Amino acid sequence: MFDSLKKEHIVAGENFNRWKVPPASIAIHLCIGSVYAWSIFNPPLTREFGVVAASAGDWSLQSVVWIFSVAIVFLGLAAAFAGKWLEEVGPRMVGVVAALCWGGGFIVGGLGIVTHQLWLVYLGYGVIGGCGLGLGYVSPVSTLIRWFPDRRGMATGMAIMGFGGGAMIATPIKEFLLRTFYEVPTYLGPESAVSLVTEGGRRMAEVNGQMVEVVVAGAKQVAAAPVAIEPGIYVAGTGNTGAAMTFFTLGVIYFVVMVIASFSYRVPREGWKPAGWEPAAAHVAQRKMISDNDVHIDQALKTPQFYLLWIVLCFNVTAGIGVIGVAKTMMTEIFGTTLPLIVNSAFAATYVFMISVFNMVGRFLWASASDYIGRKNTYYCFFVLGTILYLSIPFAAQQVSVDPAVTWLVMFYAATMIIFTMYGGGFATIPAYLADIFGTKYVGGIHGRLLTAWSTAGVLGPLAITQLREMSLSNAIHDLAARIDPSVFREKFGAGIDQLDQMIAANTVTIGRLMEIAPAGTVDPTPSLYNTTMYCMAGLLVLALIANSLVRPVHEKHHIDETTEEIEGRVVAAAE
């Protein structure tokens, strides 16, 4: 059965309409692109026991965010190893295997949530699902470049546009499924009516003669809940966030859609080109650094161009991926406390949706524009404009903490949306950039190996944003606690400040709860938690700008000798 999926069995006929291929590519990328909506799962996964609020036994945000990182790491690794395999077996077989991995990864991840074993979620969604991401990502790119040699940028933009738009479709679906499967935990009453004690940093209450762990749902938790709940005390370990059933449902849906799309793939015959099309004139090709020569997939690794483009992609992705991974959380933390009437749970979910919209649009528009202004100039735009925009985010966060005006929210929103168009545009433009530099013959495999830059960025981005955020968060909590009267602190939390670190670890003490008892005039430090991270991201874009400026045409010594290749091909054919 798998032999019938190989590319020699899916060569298109002479009258095949090449425009039938993009819909299949977009469908697969829409499925795997839902990874960009991972931040939707952050809140429910960090309160699987507490449900309405995080309990002591719940996973931390830092541990959950890394699931997304692992998926991106294995995306790059799978693409790197499967790139050469793709050139041998064709896109249909690779697409079917991608469907098995991506759909199956959700199922395994769902089992991990049900049993509360984090390693299973990492294995399912991160490792197995990540391999599905990589295979599904590379399968259409080289195919569309061969079908559209006249519009390489537009072709890769179409292929990768779906990946950016995956979260646009997945966000409302995930929100709907989480609401559908959500179960409110046992409610004990308002906080004033329940006697609470603190043991080992945990909040406890007596229920039917036994002490059980509870969580406190304040105004912030009530607003964040997917269904209507009352503020007060809830029993941990009861209720359901709906995350596990959402995983199971999505796994089945994605598998079915991706298999159907994979069977729609066709490849052009050797030497095919669009009717009436001729390659660009020599002077135009030279100006845009478009090569008529091909470089072998293994030889490409011996050129400085490969590593310069690796840096270009890695740093561009690192700057964007860390923000995407915690987009909903960042929006809520920066503006949820300063503009609570505007930035609520629904607003944050819409923000994630709009990230996907701009990510998707940017992939098509920037990649298409690169056909006219050149790939190198396109990346110059990304890095110069991106540096300015990243530096504007800390400014907006600082201003809104002093003056809670909608102006700063608009500034932040606009800056991040433009950043996400360039983030997506960088992904869509890089395959065409590679085809220009190394030729089209092995561009699929070369692209796959370059995606190891994405794997690296999948670690660097979240690592920077979580570690720097945790450092800022810890400093902010200790600073706030030092300003509060110790007796007021003990009355609020049932323990002294000497147990602060324990209560932080158990999610009992947060910035929000400290601000409830902070002295009048105390500025909420939450909006500034990401400032250091944004400065680091801007610095990475400057380094990427330098790398892009050093890209030159590949030296002719790396080009494939067509005569030698033909002789080798005849020898192999004769041996067979």
Fold blueprint:
Layout: H1 21-32, H2 42-45, H3 61-89, H4 91-114, H5 118-138, H6 141-147, H7 152-181, E1 187-189, E2 196-199, E3 202-207, E4 210-217, H8 219-224, E5 232-235, H9 243-262, H10 282-287, H11 297-300, H12 304-325, H13 327-335, H14 345-373, H15 375-402, H16 406-438, H17 443-450, H18 452-483, H19 486-493, H20 500-505, H21 511-515, H22 531-549, H23 562-575
Antiparallel strand pairs: 1-5, 2-3, 3-4, 4-5
Describe this structure in words.
65% of the residues lie in helices and 4% in strands. By secondary structure, it is mainly alpha-helical. A hairpin with a 2-residue loop joins strand 3 and strand 4. It is globular and about 80 Å long.
Which key features would you list for this structure?
five-stranded antiparallel sheet; 576 residues; 65% helix; mainly alpha; globular
Distance, first to last CA: 23 Å
Strand content: under 5%
Order of helices and strands: HHHHHHHEEEEHEHHHHHHHHHHHHHHH
Number of helices: 23
Which percent bin holds the helix content?
55-70%
Shape: globular
Largest beta-sheet details:
5 strands, antiparallel
Uncertain regions spanning at least 5 consecutive residues: 571-576
Q: Based on helices, strands and strand pairing, what is the structural class?
A: mainly alpha
Give the number of DSSP strands. Answer: 5
* Radius of gyration based on Cα positions: 26 Å
Side-by-side strand order of the widest sheet:
1-5-4-3-2
- Mean pLDDT value: 85
